[in-house]
Amino acid sequence: MSETSLINDPTYPISLSVCEAMAVPWHCHNDIEFIFVIKNEAVITLLDYETKLSADGIILVNSGFLHELRGTSPFMFLSFKIRIGMLAPELCKGLHFRCDSTSTPNDRRFYLIKHSIAELVKLFTGDNKLTSFFGYSIAYLFLNDLAMHFSDTKNEPSRKHMERFSQIAEFIEKNYSKSLTLNDIAEAVGLQPQYISLIFKRHFKINFLAYYNDVRLSRAAAELEATSKTIEQISSDCGYSESRTFAANFKKKHGMSPTAYRALAIKEKEAPEGRREDYLNLLAKYLIPRSGQLAESGLSTSVKLLHVDVDLQSPGHELKEPCIALTVESIKHALYAETQEMLRAAKADFRFDQVILPASMEDLSYQVLAKALGFVSSLGLEAVLSAKDEASKDEIEEHLSRLGLQASVCVGFQVKDSKNGRLFILKNPGDGSRDMANDTCYMACKVVKRMMEGIQYPQFKLADDPQLSGSPFVGDCGLYASGGIKKPVLQAFKMLGRFGGVELAKGEGDGGDCYSISKADKTTYVILCNYEHLGELYLSSNEADETFFARMAQVDNLSWVKATILLKGGKKSSVREHVLNRNHGSSFDEWIRMGKPPCSDRDIGLLKTVCEPSVSTYVLEPSDGALIYEAMMEPLELRVAEITEI
């Protein structure tokens, strides 16, 4: 086997190699390993099953699992290992995964793993050096993705059996040429022969003799490739008393005679150089080109491309800030301590101008009205009383005049912006319709998309109905769930508060994903929103929670977006990136991961503190007079990047 190490520093938690072989003998290690075949095909045998990996196939080998690879012609593969013992040992203890693309080759989860490995190959094919922080971050990100998407605890060997099997395998590895018997193994490792046989058959789905012969034949293949020994010498070295028996067993395992195997290996060694360009070209389709159509790139349809060129020197046009108002349950609710706390918190998180107070004459005592209007005014906000019809509107306006109080009055939820004369019509937040989509990243992306299209009024009130009980998430249309838990849509408003200046470009991709790019002084702001409409099946049902969560599975089939933003005239800049998706900033999804509990005060406190969008910072260097900002976005993700010249 020939091997080119791209990352091979024992002090780092990851290693990466490009390998080419006819066969890789039985071996094991304490790392978890991705085997990613990029040329021809290979059969990989693990102790619990065997599978054929064609080009583009990927499989994960768990820590401590013996495995071998073989092919009928030389195959090329990437070996990406994560040294879990160098991370947090207690955190990684017991982690076990089932990750095999042969069962569902078009699953976008495998594409993302391949994309990340290909990016690493691209990065470290050359003079780049791995930094400590980067190595650890990559390792933890892979473990996080594996834990979320590929965890498997079914019918796996226990740690005790794995350790004992490793002892047995080590002894066989050192003594495979001695015609070993089960009794020899038992005496060497201090176990009963019957117990060893049981370990092989019950826990590793193979008998001792089959495994022993596989080890000998794997070593024989390695010697055929690497030495000039005769077939008879290799047969004897591997413990066979007769070369004819060896040749027959070898052909059965490898599909060709030892002589043909050696000839093919020699021919491959004499092939022209150029392996580096070979594997880089083979991986190119996973790096996603910066231009061109999806069909031309050869990518899976589960990934959409978004490419935007922006001239930072263009004048653009002035952005109009959206007029945002929040609705509370009633005038009396505006006096509740919990409501006032949420209004203050929302005011600190993002900009809004008005508070809508649904009003009826029986609620309009002077004391209640004066306190409610006074509190709203103390926050620097405009109070708008909402009447049910024109007659009620006239009556409320007369009542305010008699009391000497001032406030705007509207009918229903038609609110006129006092500054720009714009009229916005809200869906009535109190109409009783509830949909748990209101609690998800889907609604956050939908609202952002509408606002970017110029529909500037969100269809949300401040908080969910306090009369609703049980689950903290009930599908009501507030920005806060029960107990003051921030929903994703509130996090979206908070992220959009960072946006400003003059707009240089905006538009949509192929599937509803949208973008907007603006600039103020030395900072360029990029908004990316991977939105897709989930359909009436997802949105219209008011059935039980289980039905809704079953429909949520549709999200996994939605497209990812690879966005490339070319900023012409950009200089060296720092990037501060805010990401809201189902893994970062979504209290609803965190609640699902907790098992959908009714939520104690402690659980609510946890959800309020941990569910914030992720924030990362890094530096972008210009290339050919432009900055290239790239992002791989999962379904229903909102991303805001602040790119500031340094």
- Rounded average pLDDT: 78
Number of helices: 21
Biggest sheet statistics = 7 strands, antiparallel
- Report, as a whole number of angstroms, the end-to-end distance: 48 Å
Structural class, judged by helices and strands?
Answer: alpha+beta
Strand content: 15-25%
The dominant shape is: elongated
Low-confidence stretches: 289-301, 421-432, 539-546
- Helix content estimate: 25-40%
Radius of gyration, whole Å: 32 Å
Number of strands: 25
In short:
The chain is 36% helix and 25% strand.
Characterize the structure shown:
- The protein is of the alpha+beta class.
- It has 21 helices and 25 strands.
- The strands form six sheets. Strands 1, 2, 3, 4, 5, 6 and 7 form a seven-stranded antiparallel sheet that branches. It has a seven-stranded antiparallel sheet with strand order 9-18-19-20-25-22-23, with helices on one face. Strands 10-11-12-13 form a four-stranded parallel sheet.
- Helix 7 packs across helix 9 (243-254).
- The chain is elongated and about 115 Å long.
- The model is unreliable at 289-301, 421-432 and 539-546 (pLDDT under 50).
Which helices and strands occur, and which strands form pairs?
Elements lengths: L1 E6 L6 E14 L4 E8 L2 E5 L3 E4 L4 E4 L5 E16 L6 H4 L15 H17 L7 H18 L9 H17 L6 H8 L3 H12 L3 H19 L4 H7 L5 H12 L3 H12 L5 H13 L6 H4 L5 E9 L5 E2 L6 E3 L9 H13 L4 E5 L7 H13 L3 E6 L2 H14 L4 E4 L2 E3 L6 E3 L15 H12 L8 E3 L14 E3 L7 H9 L5 E7 L5 E7 L2 E8 L5 H4 L5 H8 L7 E9 L4 E8 L6 H7 L7 H10 L3 E7 L5 E8 L3 E9 L1
Parallel strand pairs: 8-21, 10-11, 11-12, 12-13, 16-17
Antiparallel strand pairs: 1-2, 2-7, 3-6, 3-7, 4-5, 4-7, 9-18, 14-15, 18-19, 19-20, 20-25, 21-24, 22-23, 22-25
Helix pairs in contact: 2-11, 7-9, 16-17
